[in-house]
Design goal:
about 500 residues, Jelly Rolls, Tachylectin-2, Chain A, 2 domains, twelve-stranded mixed sheet, 2 helices, disordered N terminus
């Protein structure tokens, strides 16, 4: 599926707080994982053929909203979905709520519900009879938290070390509120089917009144767990003027070497709205930031908030989880729908995608009213795009195309595969040395020119093979003419 293009200028990718890309040590050991162009981590240079007419630009591609949306109507937000290969099912947990009325002395109630699907499009909400909700057990509620208080913000934790699974198939993080200080906070719990959650495993890891989705990922490279949350240990803790209470709708960070123990320390502030957010319409708050760790990159789904009104989702990235890149033009990962649509008020993207065939699927929560609306309805929808297709480098025919030169790499062996779209253009590759002298048999004229669209095109040369360069230090030089390059990788023969 072709993704929609948006925010096309290269200079839009500007680090707001430091440089999220950094500079790797060279030569870079790339292994067999995908190499992305969300930043210049792997890039040594980019150059158009006719440089006075444009650059070799980075392009952002927005997932396309599914025509069947909303898939789970009139209920639910903060969804977290997985594919269960053994059961042949998509499984999803999500937050449900019954809004309170302060004038009547009632507070909003939250619980965690479950749905399943064979194809990821048509979802069923089985009647489970596990917990009472709104006066009946005829529902799909699977957990209500300690003392059946406010259980909210669920997320399935992905790619955990085996020893941290504690014998369970799934680990969920969620937040409890209203169950007294000794119970409230961010908690973990295990399950083998996402329906029956083991209350004996329910463990608090941080006492923190962070009333949003508090997202946890594991970074195997650093052997570190990281959580995004609100800095509610020091902001908005009492009544008063903003200058006294401060603002808590920011993105802060906690980290820990251990998952199931009490996380130490106070949340460190991570992201603040800046002058660009203000200039684009006073988007001076962040409601939260779910994140996904994949291929050495933290992918953040930033919930940009215009107090006390709409919410949209932007894409931000980081190589270390501390320094984040935000595109200066603030392109939406998932934008609100048009007026009158089911998601015209708020959209909550994340906390991860699912790889389905050659596509990435993003389930998201949407609302037909803004944050202050008392009549809004929440639902869950789906947006999709090509695999690894969030960001590309584009060589335009108007500038004569251009080339991407990588940093010095250690080639791990196997073939070179490109995720590339050039249905009306061309792509060719040469392999060079440290000072860019082409290797014999690997020049542009030796390469079989590619025209087409493929998520895994294997590059061929007339008389040479990439596998022969195993263990050698090389550069890749990829020429793009009316083409989008999303990733490259080494693939075993």
């Amino acid at each position: 599926m072709r993704a929609l293009r948006f925010a096309v200028l290269l200079w839009a990718l500007t680090a707001v707080r430091g440089n999220g890309a950094g500079i790797p040590e060279e030569p870079v050991e790339i292994g067999f994982g995908p190499q992305f162009f969300v930043d210049d981590w792997i890039v040594d240079n980019r150059m158009p053929v006719r440089y006075k007419q444009g650059g070799l630009n980075r392009v952002y591609h927005r997932p396309v909203k599914h025509p069947a949306n909303p898939l789970i109507p009139d209920t639910g937000s903060y969804g977290s979905a997985v594919w269960d290969e053994e059961a042949g099912l998509f499984r999803m947990i999500y937050q449900i709520a019954v809004r309170g009325d302060p004038a009547a002395g009632t507070t909003t109630k939250y619980a965690i519900a479950y749905a399943e699907s064979k194809d990821g499009i048509e979802w069923k909400k089985p009647v489970l009879g596990l917990f009472e909700w709104e006066g009946t057990k005829e529902n799909n509620v699977v957990y209500r938290g300690i003392r059946e208080a406010r259980a909210s913000g669920p997320q399935i934790l992905l790619t955990l070390p085996e020893e941290e699974m504690h014998g369970f198939k799934y680990i969920m993080s969620y937040r409890v509120g209203g169950a007294k200080r000794e119970n409230d906070g961010i908690r973990l719990i295990g399950s083998n089917d996402m329906i029956h959650w083991d209350a004996e495993s329910d463990t608090r890891i941080k006492y923190l009144h962070s009333d949003t989705l508090n997202s946890i990922v594991y970074d195997a490279r650093q052997d570190l767990y990281m959580m995004t949350c609100r800095p509610k240990d020091r902001y908005r803790l009492f009544q008063g003027e903003v200058i006294d209470t401060g603002l808590s709708r920011r993105v802060a960070r906690l980290s820990s070497k251990e998952l199931w123990t009490e996380w130490e320390g106070s949340p460190q502030m991570l992201l603040l709205p800046d002058e660009q957010d203000d200039a684009l319409g006073h988007w001076n708050f962040f409601y939260g930031m779910p994140m996904h760790y994949h291929a050495g990159i933290y992918w953040g789904f930033l919930w940009n908030f215009r107090m006390n009104d709409p919410i949209e989702t932007q894409l931000v990235t980081s190589r270390d989880g501390v320094h984040w890149d935000r595109p200066a033009l603030r392109p939406m990962l998932i934008a609100r729908g048009e007026e009158g649509a089911w998601d015209d008020g708020m959209v909550f993207g994340g906390p991860h995608w699912l790889e389905v065939g050659d596509e990435w699927w993003f389930y998201y929560g949407g609302s037909d009213g803004a944050h202050q609306s008392k009549e809004r309805t929440t639902s869950i929808g789906l947006a999709t795009l090509r695999q690894e297709g969030l960001v590309s480098v584009h060589g335009s025919v108007s500038t004569g195309g251009g080339g991407v030169v990588t940093r010095r790499l250690i080639w791990p062996g196997g073939d070179l595969a490109l995720n590339v779209a050039a249905p009306e253009g061309e792509v060719k590759v040469r392999v060079s040395g440290e000072r860019r002298a082409p290797l014999e048999g690997f020049n542009y004229e030796d390469c079989e020119v590619f025209t087409g669209d493929s998520t895994a095109h294997r590059v061929r040369w007339k008389g040479a093979e990439m596998d022969s360069l195993k263990g050698e230090e090389i550069r890749l030089e990829i020429f793009l003419l009316e083409a989008d390059l999303y990733t490259f990788r080494a693939v075993e023969k």
